[in-house]
């Protein structure tokens, strides 16, 4: 087993096989090849349960080099584009790499570009942690400089300031029926990406804001929570006819 979690109540610790883990409940000699659901104890007799890493756990445990895309936004990207195993995916703006890791875990073949070399190094380590280093290639550089040499893709995902410029060039880099999805924290970039997709002759161009609100339930009644931030960004989708 690769890296996994040891979980007890609201505590969870990222572990690597064979290491010695120090916690506030004692020291754990982490087993080399545990089974999911196996119970291990600290030297103080405190029990933890082994749990394998799943997609949402990556959001919490990958090393961050910036604000990662939220699971809710990733879910919309996958649902709207039908991202699936054996897709060839071009991703730009790797950052922490959560989106690339999710797509790799779906079975897609992902090439992701990160402009900053030191961030690309971290993203490569994150792909190993996510177990997708064979499915996801992290390349340091500017996707606009290499785009003409990359061929065609089933899906292009962009989280970059120059996304509108990339969208304008995508007609030759999407297979028939292929999608582009742009994540934009700012509405100006979303609008520019939307208009670039229309000008490029892409079809089904649509931009949405993604909002998620938790619910509060108590003895007085039920209502959306007033805590937290519901808005994370804008998603623009388009498809090659």
UniProtKB/TrEMBL annotation:
Signal peptide boundaries: none
Superkingdom per UniProt: Archaea
Alphabetized GO MF terms: tRNA (adenine(58)-N1)-methyltransferase activity
Gene Ontology CC annotation, any one: tRNA (m1A) methyltransferase complex
Pfam families cross-referenced by the UniProt entry: GCD14
UniProt keyword Disulfide bond present: no
PROSITE patterns recorded: SAM_TRM61 (PS51620)
A Gene Ontology biological process term: tRNA methylation
Domain (tRNA (adenine(58)-N(1))-methyltransferase catalytic subunit TRM61 C-terminal): residue spans on this chain: 72-216
Record key words, sorted: Methyltransferase, S-adenosyl-L-methionine, Transferase, tRNA processing
Matching InterPro entries: SAM-dependent_MTases_sf, TRM61_C, tRNA_MeTrfase_Gcd14
Name the record gives this protein: tRNA (Adenine57/58-N1)-methyltransferase
């Amino acid at each position: 087993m690769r890296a996994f979690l040891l979980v007890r109540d609201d505590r969870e610790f990222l572990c690597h096989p064979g290491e010695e883990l120090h916690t506030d409940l004692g020291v754990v000699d982490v087993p080399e090849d545990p089974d999911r659901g196996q119970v291990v104890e600290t030297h103080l007799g405190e029990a933890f349960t082994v749990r394998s890493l799943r997609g949402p756990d990556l959001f919490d445990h990958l090393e961050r080099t910036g604000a990662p895309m939220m699971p809710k936004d990733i879910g919309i990207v996958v649902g709207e584009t039908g991202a699936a195993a054996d897709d060839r995916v071009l991703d730009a703006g790797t950052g922490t790499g959560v989106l690339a890791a999710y797509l790799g875990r779906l079975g897609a073949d992902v090439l992701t570009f990160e402009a900053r070399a030191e961030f690309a190094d971290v993203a490569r380590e994150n792909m190993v942690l996510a177990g997708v280093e064979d499915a996801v290639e992290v390349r340091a550089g500017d996707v606009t400089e290499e785009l003409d040499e990359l061929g065609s893709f089933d899906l292009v995902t962009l989280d970059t300031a120059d996304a509108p410029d990339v969208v304008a060039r995508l007609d030759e880099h999407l297979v028939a029926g292929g999608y582009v999805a742009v994540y934009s924290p700012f509405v100006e970039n979303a609008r520019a990406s939307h208009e670039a997709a229309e000008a490029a002759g892409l079809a089904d161009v649509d931009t949405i804001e993604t909002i998620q609100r938790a619910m509060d339930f108590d003895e007085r009644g039920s209502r959306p929570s007033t805590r937290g931030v519901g808005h994370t960004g804008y998603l623009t989708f388009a498809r090659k006819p």
